[in-house]
Amino acid sequence: MGFGKNNVLHGNHFRKDWQRRVKTWFDQPGRKLRRRTARKTKAATLGVRPLELLRPAVRAQTVRYNRKVREGRGFTLAELKAAGVGRKEARGVGIVVDHRRRNLSEEGKKVNVERLLAYKTKLIVFPRKAGKPKKGDSTGADLTAPTTRVAVPLPETYSAEAPRKITAEEREFNAFRTLRVARANQRHEGSRKARQAKKDEEEAAKKK
Fold first, then answer.
1. Where is the composition biased (Basic and acidic residues) (predicted)?
2. Average pLDDT over residues 75-93
3. Could you give phi then psi for residue 97, rounded to 5 degrees?
4. What percent of the chain lies above the pLDDT cut of 90?
């Protein structure tokens, strides 16, 4: 085959022995079995412990999702203090701590403190040496009590109310109007206070 004009002669190498450079994964089934066996061995050496770490119950972000309760990153230091759990002790018993999180409501804090207290009542800490329990380790009948590895469930977001008839007062209540009035009162509160203060000063001046 000829080449037109003064172009570079290209060397097309079509015999590159590609079979030597192909990476195969024929050992994948064996690796899968090995990983599974390693997980079983690790679980047996760790003993009886929860399947998951304990995390707080928090509200999801934005107005669209804030009615949903999910697991957060970790408990605040205030929540741990209220439940009587040390921050270093918490990490040893499967409680996640997040020092950056802040409690924005008393209700949310109360829910997580109750969650911690419920976890503490169910917690059994086996001593490292059977005959020498340390401070915080479980002793006596607790060591022979039945154990479970199920995590503490998230609290219910709301309790369903039984169906009932709408009252006459509820029928007459105008929610939109009430909200608009409350909004207007908040907006004009400063100017109304200033007007009232000026009026009081004028009346006081007249009395003098």
1. 186-208
2. 93
3. -115, 135
4. 58
